[in-house]
Each structure stands twice: as structure tokens, then as C-alpha cells.
Amino acid sequence: MIKWLELDGAESEVVISSRIRLARNFSGYNFTNKLKPEEAESIIKEVENAIIYGTSAIRDDFKSLRMAEIDKLEKGILLEKHLISRDIAKSELSAALVKDDETVSIMVNEEDHIRIQALFPGFRLDDAWDIADKIDDLLEERVGYAFDERLGYLTACPTNVGTGMRASIMMHLPALVELGYIDGVLKAANQIGLAVRGIYGEGSQAKGSIFQISNQLTLGRKEEEILGNIKGLSKQLISKELEARSFLHKNHGMKFEDKIYRSLGILKSARTIDSNEAMNLLSNVKLGIEMGLIDDMKSREIDKLFIEIQPAHQQSMSGQNKAQERDVKRAEYLRKELSQNINEDKEV
Amino acid sequence: MIKWLELDGAESEVVISSRIRLARNFSGYNFTNKLKPEEAESIIKEVENAIIYGTSAIRDDFKSLRMAEIDKLEKGILLEKHLISRDIAKSELSAALVKDDETVSIMVNEEDHIRIQALFPGFRLDDAWDIADKIDDLLEERVGYAFDERLGYLTACPTNVGTGMRASIMMHLPALVELGYIDGVLKAANQIGLAVRGIYGEGSQAKGSIFQISNQLTLGRKEEEILGNIKGLSKQLISKELEARSFLHKNHGMKFEDKIYRSLGILKSARTIDSNEAMNLLSNVKLGIEMGLIDDMKSREIDKLFIEIQPAHQQSMSGQNKAQERDVKRAEYLRKELSQNINEDKEV
């Protein structure tokens, strides 16, 4: 189960999720690359005290996961759910404090001492900012942050100095990819200090046509200004993508529908399928749902499948750790999930 | 409806149909290329008198179709059902006497004055020979055949002289194609005086992996000898094809099943499909049925679809004569037919 995906999302026909990440460091310690094990442990304890063992109203909502104590498979699942980063998964001296509903994850001793992440389904960047900001305030009351009056928050990597904030929107842009507009979008975003990147592969090769819009600059701008820029570009992208979808449907109607229904047909019948192919077929099905061509499934169900068909989730569900066997189990899982949706709807 | 396909067939897991064609000419007329219109008409009348207007037991089973009187679409359908040839469809001075159950078609004024064809589903070459031979005897009693004591039956083209017989077996050889053995089979057959040809395209490019085994020689051999050779090679091919299927299933089980189920998934979901792609996907589904992977459809239903998805049948059913619109109607037809089969079986 992917809890954060169960929440309400807004404008989810193009936007999959919204995320805020704040990088913070303690003033009394070296950055993590020069941290001794006992210092690393002490930082984890300080964060746990502030969040879990303190008197805060949210203390019961969090659990602390020590990376040294959980196995590779569990880390893989947290990673695929976007709750931890690849870097922290490799570290033995780090922890993640994860909120019950999975909307907040506080990574300790990643590249920075603290990385606060807030993640919501749909176009909910303000909600993500609100909760990340609250957690940040709560921590700032109890621990000493490394902060410079002129520069702002100090971070291990200079690209994060200032606000320490990375805001991002995950979007599904299949029509812009199909029409070959995506590389232009990527370049244009770059020119206004934003980055558009494929989540699962770069540029027009991005699997599932899933992209992330995020700020490149953290310094010299206020948080609200950065958020405004990202929301502005996201709204433009939403409208461009919707235009491109209408164009495709109007001008290539039958070919367009054919591609969508064939994708669903293959997903519902394949006996073996790798995650890349499944991502791309699911992307077509998601588009079909959003365009009203497929009306017995929900777009959010496909977002869930995007995550669940990844290798660690598949291994956890099926117990298969060989790629070949996982492909068979993945096909089985997709057949089951996609027929279930239809049956459920038929009963309604 | 394709009546001849409704009859019983034997060993139909590889053999689709068996056919005998006898070429005969009248002694009192020029060959068709030098025939005047009134002579052509007179030949048609002689055949009609012998078969339809005579006292024969079968006279009520036949109807005579004058090629000048039926439209292009109807000719196309007879052609796709394998009841007339491409040559006769182009001629205005010819006719086809077709038996009600479509197992026998007597073409008049094709390349020869008379071509008797008998066609059965499955491996029933002897049945086809029996009925063609009986029709031949019946005609020979009433009309004067061009016959030479030394050469046998005289025909317009020297390649048919002698028995005037072309016997053929239509086979589905997808596993031999898949394993790349088909070109070798084609050459080997050639060396023993038999020809193996793709029905819808040549060699390994044959659409739907459907091939016809037939004799190349008609002279200097008795009918029984020719039939024996063809049956012998056919039996070998059946056993080679079945071996190849087992090999594929044993060694590429999951990939093999995946291809079959995906083919069915695409056929059941496509919104537009041309006849070539449909032929190849149906061929995979037919293989799946014959291997017991798909148990809610019948192989003969696929044989029927092979014919029904051809352009003239599609045009007749849908009224669409533009290729693009036919592709849409074909996809619609396939979805309907393939879901029907499943529902019918679920009720059993």
C-alpha cells in the first residue's frame, strides 16, 4: 500500500504529485561527510527527541527507521515510494523518520544532517510547503541550525545554500512526448531557472512520460517566489499538455484510441513484462482514463501501479528476486489488478 | 458464412483444408484463349446441362453463377472463400457451378474449359478426391473430353497435361516458421516434385504462417501415386510442426505463451487493424488453441476469421470500401467475434 497516494489530489489529470524538500544542518557538527559514527548517532537522537520523544502534537504520527536496521528490500520499497533517497539507502549511519500517512519523511544524515520532505498526490505544492515549513519550525525551536544572516541556511553542497528548498511537481506529459515537444519544454524551463527531468530516464526517453519540474536555484530568492515560479510553469505545462492531448485526439483520433486500447489489451494479457514496457503501457492507459476513453478505471490506480511494478515492490510481493521471474510475476500482478478494477466497476 | 468450413475435418490442429482440382477440356472446341463468345456460352450450357439440367442425383445441389452477372464484391467473396480463382473472376465469358455446401465448385472457361474443385476442412484429401472423381465421371459420360491415349487429359497449359490433377493441403505451420525451418521445408518439398507455398505471401513472409502443399507434376504418374506423395509429405510436416511446437513450448515456454496471449489481447482491444497484422495475430491465437493454452475458443473459428477478415468479406459486411475505414470495421468485427466465443464458452 502506498499511503500518500490515497489522499485527495487536485488537477491530477496531469499532475501526479507535489513535493517540498528542505535541507538543514546542525550548527554544532561537521557536515555528514566528516561525521564520526558517534556524532551521526547523536544527530539522529537529537532529531528523534525533537519529533518523537518531545511534547509535540505530532510525536505519535512518526516512526524512526534506522537504515542500519532495515534490509535492502525494505529500503528499495521506501525508495520506490519516493520516501527516501538513493543516497540515504546506502548509508549505515542514517535514519528516516516517516509519518504514518507517508506525506512527511525526515531523512537524517543524508547529504545534509536533515532533509525534510513533504509529498502529496496531485497539484498540492502549497500543502506540501505548509507541512514542511511547520516541521522545520518545530525542529528549529529545539535544535541549532547552521544559518548565515547573509546566505541563509548552510548546506553540504553549495547548490542548496539559501532556502535549502527544492520544490517539485511530478507530471504525466505523454502528449507532449508523443508530439516531440518535450525537449523544447526542458530547454525553456532551464532558461527560467527551473529543471524538467524524467523520473525514470531522461528527456524524450523518460519511461511512462513522467517528469519532475523543480527549482535549480535555492539562493537569493524567497521560498514564496520559488514556489510561484514552479506553480506558474506547472500551470503552463498542464495547459500545453491538455492542448496536445486534444490535438492528438482530434487529428489522430483512431490511431490514438487504438494505441491506448492496445496498451490496455497487452497489460491485461501479457505473461511476462519488464518494468520499462509496463511503465510505457500504463502511461498510455492513464492517458486513456484522463481523456475519458477508459471509464472503468481510476487514474490514481495507475499512479499506484507505476510504483508497485518497480522491482523492489514486485520482489516484496512475489518473493522473486530474479529479473526473469519478476517479469512473470509483474505480468500476473498487472492482469489481476487491471481486471479487478473492471469487475469492481461493473458491480457499481 | 463459409459453408465448407462447417463440415467435419480430421487432424485439423495443423491441417486447415484439403483440395483437389481437375483440369478438363472439351474435344470439340478450341482452348479458352481462342474461344469465341458463342462457343464459350455453348460450353457453359453443356456443363450446366450435364450437372444442373440433367437427370443426375446431384442436380439440385448446384447453382450456376455467370461471372458477367455478379458484381466485383461477390466475386471477391467467392475468391476469399477459395471457391473461384483470380483468373475466372476477371473473365466475362465464364461461370462457376457451386455446390450448396461449397465443397465443390466447377469453374467453366477458366484457363481450361472445366476445372473441378473439391474442398474440405481438415486432412480429407481422399474425400476431396472421391467427390471430384465422381463429378468428373458424371461429366465424362455426357461431354466429350480432350484425351490422348499416351498423354492423358489435354490441357491449355502443358504443366497440367496428364492427370490434370492438382491436389493440395493447406497447413498452419507457425512453429516451423518461428524456428526458421520453413525455407528448408520448401526446398526439400521441391526436390520430391511437390511445392510448398505461402497462401498469403511467399516463404517465411507468408502471412498467418499458412502454406499449401501441392504436386508440381501431373504427367506420368497415377492420381493415387500423387495423392500418396502429398499425404506422405503432409504427415511428415504435421509431425515436424508438432515437434517444433513442443520444442518451443518446452524451451521458450513463458516467451511463447506471452506471445500467444498478447496476440489475443491485441485482437480483443485494437481499434484499427489491417488484414496482414490480423492474420499474424490470429495465427498465434490458433496456435494457442491447438496447444491447449486457450481453451475457450475453437481453432476452426480462427480458420473462419482468416477468411472473414479479408478485404471483400469486410467490405461486404461493413459496406466500407476505403482501406482505412475497413481497418476500423475489421478491428470492431474481431473484438465482437473474439469476445463472443469467450462468452459462449463461459455459459457452458
Automatic annotation (TrEMBL), chains A, B:
Source organism, top-level taxon: Bacteria
Entry's transmembrane regions: none
A GO MF label: ATP binding
Activity regulation: the record says: Appears to be allosterically activated by the binding of pArg-containing polypeptides to the pArg-binding pocket localized in the C-terminal domain of McsB.
One Pfam family this chain carries?
A: ATP-gua_Ptrans
In this chain, ATP is annotated as bound at: 17-21, 82, 115, 166-170, 197-202
Q: Which GO terms describe its cellular component?
A: extracellular space
| Enzyme class of the recorded protein, top EC level | transferase
Q: Which reaction does it catalyse?
A: L-arginyl-[protein] + ATP = N(omega)-phospho-L-arginyl-[protein] + ADP + H(+)
Q: Where is this motif: RDXXRA motif of the pArg binding pocket involved in allosteric regulation?
A: 326-331
Where's the Phosphagen kinase C-terminal domain? Answer: 14-244
Recite the UniProt keywords alphabetically.
Allosteric enzyme, ATP-binding, Kinase, Nucleotide-binding, Transferase
Q: Which chain positions lie within coiled-coil regions?
A: none
Whether Electron transport counts among this entry's keywords is no
Which CDD domains does its entry note? Answer: bacterial_phosphagen_kinase
Q: Give the EC number.
A: 2.7.14.1
GO biological process terms held by the UniProt record: phosphocreatine biosynthetic process
Q: Family, per the entry?
A: Belongs to the ATP:guanido phosphotransferase family.
**Protein name in UniProt:** Protein-arginine kinase
